Amino acid sequence: MNHSNDCKSKWRFGSLWMAIAFAFLSVFSFSCDDEEENKDVMAPSGLRYASVSEVYEGKVMETACPVVFSTSKPKFEIAAGTAEEGGVYVEGEFQIVDTTGIIKLKVDNELIAGTYFLDIKVSNGAGEVVFPKAFELIVLPSAIEGLRYTPLQQVVVRGLEGQKTTIPEFKGTNPVTFTLSENSDFIIDSATGEISLPLDSQLDAGEYRLSVVATNVTGEQTFNEVVRIDVQTLPYDLVYSTKTYLGVQQTQAKQSVEPTINGTGPVSYSLKNNFDAFTIDPVSGVVSLPQAHTLAIDTYSLTVVATNEHGSVDFVDALSFEIIAIQAIIATDLTYASANYSINQAFAFTSDVPTVSGSTPTYSLVDNYGEFTIDAATGVISLTEGNALAIGDYPLTVKATNLAGEATFTDVITITVKAAVVEQLFEDGWDNVSPSSGDTGLGNMLTYSSVGDPVQASNNKWTRGWGNWSVLDQAGTTVRGAVMIPQKTENDDWLMTPSVDLTNHVKTKVNFAGYSKYGVDASTLKLLVSEDYNGDVATATWVELAFDKLPTTSPSKDREVDLSQFDGKTVTIALRHTSLLSGDLVLTQFTRSHFILDFKVNAIRK
Length: 606
Fold this sequence. Notes:
This protein is mainly β.
């Protein structure tokens, strides 16, 4: 607390003779609110501040007004300052108001715990007087507060020299001792507060939230989850499940399995020494020895280097290959990745490359059912698009032949041919919808007008834009359909499907029927497809698909449009009608009404 006398208090003298003397000399005491000045000029005397004040380190302080005897309004200055009992006087930290003598300290001042004395110079019209140690202040140690690490989220890489957090910031009395609030794999520098991991730490990668205890002369303070440490690592624990490859013949190709590895990703791979033959996939880590290599008979141990953003680690003798003299070994263990495949009738098919032990063979099929082929060098089995295989199961027997002889692998793979099923992925849904007020009545279809507002008549027929009304089908029968009326005005109107998922389908087609009327240009209707439509036709990318123009008279004619270029994707499909003026065109020359029915999307499931 700060202790001082009231601003208006006066220094009192117990001595009678002193009181008589001052009365005789007409001397007046001064305080903050004194405004009158005595005409008899006398130098300042008797400066007094309130009793000793106390303040905590770094805190704001302001005294009350001092009392001084002066025959005119005095002016105050700090003449000098000293410190005792551990304090260190810092020039400029104390401020004095020259007209009142009030002494101040600003918040976050740099004074440390100790006792401070100020020599105050007071001047008036009669002269100036310096009062030694006129003001005394005791600065007390301050508790630790506001401890924080910047930034809050920090990265420490396990196993690397010099990995540690920043030094924390805080307010309070030094020295401070830091500890972690709980047992931890982390260590903290007790003097600086920097947090690190021992070099031999095996702590798993991940985020750790640490609480720090800070202790000074005032006691200890706990700061919960004051830093979040993202532990990252160099690559470690590289393992090839098949480490040794024995009996690889000279000139024979060989490929390793993909390794497992731990550490902060992504990881890239390289070889320390490739013996001018081995290669490694930098992404997967698979080591390959090509066909027709020239390695001599020997065992080749490879050191794999794994690298991530924090550095590289050498894994010595990570795997080895034993090269032996060329010898004929009959083929064994012929295996395809999948022993059973299911395909649609008349669809193309390609199998995986089989694995086989023994000397490199050539492959043939015992029975190809008149349609299957096999690559003699790789063993890949294929069917061409449009093949004539009937629905059913086709077990295939493969013969592998090398210098040691031939081996037959009966029913090593079975291909099941099934009927291709056409699925309807979207239907307009407007057949049984009747027009109603405020509703386009277009079922599952969406509409959008970027030029001109749609207009609906009192009988609910839309006389501008897309709306549900009567359409003549292919037989001339009146049915429900979508009608586009441009009303001989500029327009840009869209009739769209919601997104259609073609992820698991092929041979997608759009089927619709319709006709147009009026005007002289029947090409104002476009069929568009977008893969990135998200609610704004202007920002989406649209691909126009060609189709035969609709007839200019009823009844409707069918149209089928190949959409297979979008197989496997998710798309939005739109019919767009535009009548926009340019050059010397007149609206009546190209404005047409369009009548559409049965808008559907069909595809074959894979």
